[in-house]
Amino acid sequence: MTPQQLAVATAAHTARQGNLTKALHLMEGLDSAEALDLRARVLAQLGRWQEAHDTWAPLSPTAAPGHAGVTADAGDPSPHLHPGTGVEVGASAGRALAERALAGRALARKVLAGRVRQRPVVRPVAVAAVAMLAIGGITAGTALAVNRPDPVVAEPQPSVAPRTVTVTPTGQLDELNRRIAAEKAAAARLDAIAAAVAMPGVTVRREPGAVRVVFDRGLFSSGTTFAGGSAELLTRLAPKLKRVPGITVVGQSVAVPGSEATGGSSTALARARVAAQQLARAGGLPLTRFALASGDQSRPLFPGQTRNRTVSLLLTP
């Protein structure tokens, strides 16, 4: 899809949402046949019939005096250029598009002359997405499929031969945009958590869907006994956790001879409980705000035993 086709698709989606003025703004500077046809229909929906009539003009093939219709023979593959704009119309740009333009201009003239009651020519949300035309004779490869005009008076609209189209679903674009927006919002929340808990004595790491706080030295001298300064470090950190929705305290330990070499340990889980109690008291938080877990002994945070007599915090939005 070319940049201009993408712009037309975006404008069509915007018009379908009912924001016709914004759709017109998005089509500024676009001069393809699809863009002109969509612009004319939006102008008609807004009641700007003279502008709609003039915008459809480049799409209406020139005709001999007294004869309104497409001048190209049905089998003529050569393009027709509007003398004023040079826009390709006729067979090469799709006879259906040209015939719709002729019908639209005729309707605009009737409205402007007061011969028919003015009312919208398209439903506010009826503009469809860009369609890939699977027929020969269209060198551009794409055209815009829009709903046929609602008849203002009881008279038949110009007939158009059926064409096979494959529509690009705008629902897929909407879903992709929603996912991108959700990912950006989640990343912003994690960035905010990381910034809030940063302080001397800890290292903040971003992990998939979470922020991990690792202490720069072991918090325990042995078992569940705090090393010097560890309780004070947790006390300084505690107030920074008040606005963090999810807090998991993960106890750490290393395997010792004669014990299990993998999995969690009771010592690690006990360290997590003691650290959570200190954080809860210092931060004025209920102990229920903290989840407890034991790290895998076979995957220590640091080499050696001393620094692994500690806990880490896993924070989630």
Structural class: alpha+beta
Count of alpha and pi helical runs: 8
Strand order of the largest sheet: 6-7-12-10-11
Could you give the count of β-strands? 12
Portion in beta strands: 5-15%
Order of helices and strands: HHHHEEHEEEHEEEEHEHEE
Low-confidence spans: pLDDT under 50, at least 5 residues?
63-93, 120-161
Question: Roughly what percent helix?
Answer: 25-40%
- The general outline is rod-shaped
> Termini distance?
38 Å
| Mean pLDDT across all amino acids | 75
Compute the gyration radius: what is it? 34 Å
Describe this structure as you would to a colleague.
The protein has helices at 3-16, 20-26, 33-45, 49-56, 95-113, 170-197, 230-237, 266-283; strands at residues 80-81, 88-89, 130-133, 143-144, 165-167, 202-207, 210-215, 220-222, 225-226, 246-251, 290-294, 311-316. With 317 residues, the protein is an alpha+beta fold. It has a five-stranded mixed beta sheet with strand order 6-7-12-10-11. A three-stranded antiparallel beta sheet has the order 4-3-5. Strands 1-2 form a two-stranded antiparallel sheet. A hairpin with a 2-residue loop joins strand 8 and strand 9 (225-226). Helix 1 runs parallel beside helix 3. The two termini are 38 Å apart. Residues 63-93 and 120-161 have low confidence and may be disordered.
